[in-house]
Amino acid sequence: MTNPSILPYPEFVYDERQDFEYNFWKWRDMADNEAKQENRPRYTEIEAKAIFQQQYGHYSKGVAL
């Protein structure tokens, strides 16, 4: 049974109108919410940055998180 007080986020879509860091924090918020819904630990900051860099690094334009 799901918790009705936790609403699912839509699937993350990288917003090219925003900068790389903004997109990371939006993705991180969504990933944290997903972890909470699935009753599993959140990614550490290092893990989250590594995963985001791996998945969306081609948008970074050389910007490091």
Descriptors:
65 residues; mainly alpha; 0% strand; 2 helices
Kindly describe this structure.
- The chain is an all-alpha fold.
- It has a domain at 20-59.
- The protein has helices at 20-37, 45-56.
- The longest helix is centred in the middle third of the chain and has 18 residues, at 20-37.
- The chain is globular, with a radius of gyration of 13 Å.
What fraction, in percent, of the residue positions are helical?
Answer: 40-55%
- What is the count of DSSP helices, taking H or I runs of 4+ residues? 2
How would you state the average pLDDT, rounded? 89
Low-confidence region ranges: none
Gyration radius over CA? 13 Å
- SSE succession: HH
Distance between the termini: 36 Å
Major sheet details = none
Beta fraction of the residues? Answer: under 5%
| Overall 3D shape | globular
- SS class: mainly alpha
Count every beta strand, where a strand is a DSSP E run of 2 or more residues. 0
Could you write a compact summary of the structure shown?
The protein has a domain at 20-59. It is built from two helices and no strands.
What topology does this entry show?
Elements: H1 20-37, H2 45-56
